[in-house]
Amino acid sequence: MRTKKTNQQKIFFHYNPEKGLAMLKYLLNEVGGTYSYMALLKLAFFADRYHVRNYARPVSCDIYYALKLGALPSNLSNIIDVEDFLGSDISKVNTYDIKLVDKKIKKDEFSQSDIKAMNFAVQNFAKIGKKNRFDLAEITHAYPEWDRYRERFLVNTQGREDMFYEDFLKNADPKHEIFLRLKFKDPFVPLTKKEQKCVDNAFGNSNPTI
């Protein structure tokens, strides 16, 4: 199955690697210092999703892709790969888990709303990732920004697809089969029909680079 091409343009923010590292360290510290590598990236996704929906920009300003195992912030993922080699800030415990080595976090990289978004992700999703990282990855599949590719990944689990920040503004179906099966209630406040219409109108004429 070939993925249907889209004329949709990606919105790019200016990514700051120092803030990206600070974000990972903040999240890792908040979950106790040791956590699943995959689950930590999902927490970053949920923090970004919250911030986009409430403040019109992500915390990380990263580039997102949809993979078989859910949403992937590409630069944050690269940071962990590099830090595993260097070992100065974050290092690998085993094949799946990482630990915080340097607990000095540059919190001046964050706005108050950044902190609020990251705390939202930790409060609502961290326990799931601690218990079962695959459940947390699957929950990202219930959100429209990944769910648009569901049929594609059922046929071909390889490769990746673009994720779009404007899709972060779409409401998830509260009765999505993943939510029901995992007995999970979506913590994101849904946009009203009026708000959603404003979003649709705005992105019809948006500049793809911010």
Summarize the structure.
It contains 9 helices and 6 strands; from the N terminus they run H-E-H-E-E-H-E-E-H-H-H-H-E-H-H.
Q: Overview of this structure, please?
A:
This protein has 210 residues and is mainly alpha-helical. Helix content is 48%, strand content 10%. The protein has helices at 17-30, 37-55, 74-86, 112-131, 133-140, 144-147, 150-155, 177-182, 193-203; strands at 34-36, 64-67, 70-73, 90-92, 97-100, 161-162. It has a 3-stranded antiparallel beta sheet. The chain has a 3-stranded antiparallel beta sheet with strand order 3-2-6. The longest helix has 20 residues, at 112-131. It is globular. It starts with 16 loop residues before the first helix and ends in a 7-residue tail after the last helix.
Strand content: 5-15%
Q: Write down the secondary-structure element order.
A: HEHEEHEEHHHHEHH
- Overall mean pLDDT score? 91
Low-confidence stretches: 205-210
What's the tally of helices? 9
Structural class of the secondary structure composition?
mainly alpha
User: How many strand elements?
Assistant: 6
**Dominant shape:** globular
Helix % is: 40-55%
* Main beta sheet: 3 strands, antiparallel
Radius of gyration, in angstroms, nearest whole number = 17 Å
Distance between the termini: 33 Å
Strand order of the largest sheet: 1-5-4
